TrEMBL record:
One of its GO terms (molecular function) is protein histidine kinase activity. SMART domains: HATPase_c. The chain crosses the membrane at residues 12-30, 42-61, 100-122, 134-158, 170-192, 204-221, 233-254, 266-284. Gene3D superfamilies: 3.30.450.40, Histidine kinase-like ATPase, C-terminal domain. Keywords: Kinase, Membrane, Transferase, Transmembrane, Transmembrane helix. It catalyses: ATP + protein L-histidine = ADP + protein N-phospho-L-histidine. This is histidine kinase. The lineage of its organism: Bacteria, Pseudomonadati, Pseudomonadota, Alphaproteobacteria, Sphingomonadales. Residues 488-692 form the Histidine kinase domain. It comes from Novosphingobium hassiacum. Its EC number is 2.7.13.3.
Length: 712
């Protein structure tokens, strides 16, 4: 006949399982330290060992009120407090948030009073009233430690940066379950003045749950954590208020349930503890709930929404961050603005050379579909003159304060994730525009948001202007280096010229000598080879290659280029459109541009991948497209590096090919457009005036075309 179910037997099995789980965690941590050869994980090993020892003592049938069980429970609590402090030290917050050390020291002091109470209990063994009083004091101390520990767990999770909370989520959940169960247990013990058998038995199951959460966190891995400053004292106060309110509710619920009496009271207590624990574990990791709490705290507890010192420190750290893994400056600019308003994503638009605003960087917003011309050049003065921060929700609602509605492009209106536009002004000049994504907790921007964003925008504009100035200085220094290289080239040319001059003078004297004529031919051939090799290393700039503009069939140029690259039976460059496309261009210059683009496409593509060429008409222009399926380029590379001279991704490259191609196309009154996606490929489009549209284009430009730029 099967033995009847007892809470005590159930509790013993749960404590056995808990001890086994924590011993497994000890073995895993020890093996991890041995393999990596580091001291990391020492605090975890000690904590898990003491927890396993406490579980084994209770699994042996020891009453939780005995001196031995109480002593090991104190050791367990002290070890978990030490582990919490270690988590703060790994994050660096024990040095930057002053209340952490006093709170932990106070909790350790309170827990250290437990052995004193145990000694007093041993001295008053025969005095039942004294023992009961000591027991109640011990329970109160346990409640204080559990409450303080929950405050620490709250601040441990709340103080971590949003992208780093994943590493802490499961550890904080385990700590919340550990101390939350103790808080519920000792609240009921204090009210009932006795240890309920059911809750003490289920304590082993709670410990097993703690071990399970720690295992999940270990499997998912850990990362180095960084602290993002916040109003630590305010959040601690809020945590204490929430926990205090929770305890009041618990006391009221327990007193109400006590009136019910019998088994119904015990079952209701268990259900209440279970439901509240599940709610705490479900709500703690919620970013939306935390965002709502932050907004409510700022509204009702502070005169100002922002802690300006903390915001400025975070802003400075974001912009001044260094290291190999640091994002580019333009991306950090977006993050610095987004962090202020808790925006989930953002974009940076900057002014292109032709005047329009284009995408320079995106932060956590890969799905934003930004056109090549993000904002037209005609809309820039509206932002530049007023410096007005645009609330896009108000614009969508039809509100128009200073005419900003006409300046907001259609794609931003349709992108409902976009929340605000922040202009970056440097001495009344628009350096860029930051598009902020909507935060998790939607709210309306107020005067304090506008003031802080305006000041931050001015500061960021100065950073961007300084960055542009440094880039210009670097480019000038590279031009100087290029000039020095040209000096060596001039020296070589001078030597060749001297040899040819000497040869011509000797030819006047020895022209009839056959041996001299043979040597002269060898010398001329060597000089010609040296000159050709030298010319092959040089590139032309400006409109030197486009002195004569004539009627050129772009399709014929594409076919000529393709024939140079395609081996018999192995075509690699394909011309997909053979229809005539007659444009105004210099044939040699246009061929040089297409050759450069095709070579770049082949270099960016895997071996054997095809490159596609086509020419077609587009309005008043002819469009020549070079398309590949190679590695592609980022928006930041296209904006800041592609057309910059002396910037090359090829080993030993001069970095002036793309710059020269653009200058040649500009000299032919055309332009180059680039569309690229990393991992997908690139399309270069060269737009040149159609031959048939020459008269119309000349009339638009006021008849200022030079005589040598007419059709031959």
């Amino acid at each position: 006949m099967a033995s009847p179910f007892t809470w005590q037997g159930f509790g013993q099995w749960m404590f056995i399982a808990s001890a086994f789980a924590f011993l497994l965690l000890v073995a895993w941590q020890w093996d991890r330290r041995r393999r990596k050869g580091t001291k990391a994980g020492r605090a975890e090993i000690v904590t898990f060992l003491l927890t396993a020892a406490w579980s084994l003592i209770l699994a042996a049938g020891t009453d939780q009120t005995t001196i031995l069980a109480q002593f090991f429970e104190s050791l367990r609590s002290l070890s978990w407090l030490a582990l919490t402090f270690v988590l703060f030290t790994r994050d660096g917050r024990h040095t930057s948030v002053a209340p952490i050390r006093p709170v932990i020291a106070s909790l350790v002091f309170v827990e250290m009073l437990q052995p004193v109470l145990l000694l007093a209990q041993m001295e008053s063994y025969s005095d039942i009233a004294a023992r009961q009083m000591i027991f109640q004091i011990s329970v109160v101390f346990r409640l204080l430690v559990a409450t303080g520990a929950l405050v620490l767990v709250h601040n441990l999770y709340a103080g971590a940066m949003a992208q780093q909370r994943v590493a802490l989520r499961w550890t904080c959940a385990a700590l919340t379950m550990l101390w939350g169960y103790d808080l519920n247990l000792y609240t009921i013990v204090y009210l009932s003045r006795a240890m309920p058998v059911e809750l003490t038995s289920l304590r082993g199951l709670a410990q097993l749950g703690v071990a399970g959460l720690l295992v999940i966190g270990a499997v998912r891995g850990r990362s180095a954590l960084r602290f993002s400053p916040s109003r630590a004292v305010a959040f601690q106060s809020l945590s204490l208020m929430v926990i205090g309110a929770y305890m009041i509710v618990m006391v009221g619920a327990a007193q109400s349930l006590a009136w019910m009496g019998g088994n119904a009271s015990q079952l209701a207590q268990l259900g209440f503890v279970l439901v509240t624990s599940v709610l705490v574990l479900a709500i703690l990791p919620s970013g939306r709930v935390r965002g709502w709490l932050k907004v409510m705290l700022s509204k009702h507890f502070f005169q100002h929404r922002y802690d300006y010192r903390a915001e400025w420190l975070r802003f400075t750290r974001t912009i001044g961050r260094v290291g190999s893994q640091t994002p580019p400056l333009h991306e950090r600019v977006v993050q610095a603005v987004a962090d202020i308003t808790d925006s989930s994503a953002g974009l940076l638009l900057v002014q292109a050379e032709s005047g329009e605003m284009v995408l320079a960087a995106r932060w956590q917003w890969p799905t934003a579909d930004v056109p090549a011309e993000a904002i037209a050049a005609s809309a820039i003065p509206a932002f530049e003159k007023r410096g007005f921060i645009v609330d896009l929700d108000e614009v969508r609602a039809g509100i128009d304060y200073q005419g900003e509605r006409a300046s907001v492009p259609k794609w931003l209106m349709e992108e409902h994730t976009a929340w605000a536009l922040v202009p970056l002004l440097h001495f009344d000049r628009l350096v860029g525009l930051v598009v902020l994504g909507r935060p998790l907790v939607a709210r309306k921007l107020d005067w304090e948001d506008f003031d802080l964003l305006r000041v931050v925008g001015m500061q960021l504009a100065s950073y961007l202007a300084e960055h542009a100035g440094q880039s210009a200085l670097l480019e000038a220094s590279r031009f100087d280096e290029f000039n020095r290289r040209i000096a060596f080239v001039m020296h070589d040319i001078k030597n060749l010229a001297s040899q040819l001059s000497l040869l011509s003078r000797n030819a006047e004297k020895h022209a009839e000598n056959p041996a001299f004529r043979a040597d002269m031919l060898i010398t001329l051939r060597n000089s010609a080879d040296k000159l050709n090799a030298l010319l092959a290393r040089l590139s032309r700039y400006g409109n030197n290659g486009a002195e004569r503009i004539e009627d050129v069939d772009a399709s014929d140029v594409l076919r000529s280029v393709a024939e140079r690259y395609n081996a018999p039976g192995q075509p690699q460059v394909h011309v997909t459109s053979g229809a005539p496309c007659r444009v105004l261009a210099n044939r040699d210059a246009l061929e040089q541009v297409v050759l450069h683009l095709v070579q770049n496409a082949l270099d960016a593509s895997a071996e054997g991948m095809a490159v596609f060429l086509q020419a077609h008409t587009d309005g008043l222009h002819g469009a020549i497209e070079v398309t590949d399926t190679g590695c592609g380029m980022s928006a930041e590379f296209i904006r800041n590096r592609l057309f910059k001279p002396f910037v090359s991704t090829k080993s030993g490259g001069f970095g002036i090919g793309a710059f020269e191609a653009r200058e040649l196309v500009r000299a032919m009154r055309g332009r180059i457009e680039v569309e690229s996606r990393e991992g997908l490929g690139t399309r270069f489009t060269v737009r040149l005036p159609l031959t048939a549209s020459q008269a119309f284009i000349d009339s638009i430009e006021g008849g200022r075309s030079a005589p040598d730029q007419r059709v031959a």
